[in-house]
Amino acid sequence: MVAITMADASDNCLIKRDLCTAYALLFEKMCMALGGRAAESMIFNQASTGKEQPGQRRFSQRLVRTMDEEALTLVAQAFLHTQKVLQESKDKLHKLATP
């Protein structure tokens, strides 16, 4: 049996809080990066594809699929959140988009 002290429990809470904070910061940075694409989609009903950067992967195909699925899910969530934020200020967005 392993005894868990209050210090261990406190450290565990700090680690979880730090991970949640890191996730939230990453998510907000993704939303900022997706702002232009989300605005294009809302105002012009299309979004540019951006520049693709080829890269080499040296992972198992299963791991690659898992990483791709997780990344797609995270990006989709960030994109939807960004659209929601932009929707709340859509009138200002239209002013910026029209010459």
From TrEMBL:
InterPro entries linked to this entry: ATP-dep_Zn_Metalloprotease, Peptidase_M41-like
Cellular component terms per the entry's GO annotation: m-AAA complex
Cofactor: Zn(2+)
SUPFAM superfamilies: FtsH protease domain-like
GO biological process, one term: mitochondrial protein processing
GO molecular function terms listed in the Swiss-Prot or TrEMBL record: ATP binding; ATP-dependent peptidase activity; metal ion binding; metalloendopeptidase activity
Keyword field: ATP-binding, Hydrolase, Metal-binding, Metalloprotease, Nucleotide-binding, Protease, Zinc
Zinc listed as a keyword: yes
Protein name (Swiss-Prot/TrEMBL): Spastic paraplegia 7
Native source organism of the sequence: Plakobranchus ocellatus
Organism lineage: Eukaryota, Metazoa, Spiralia, Lophotrochozoa, Mollusca
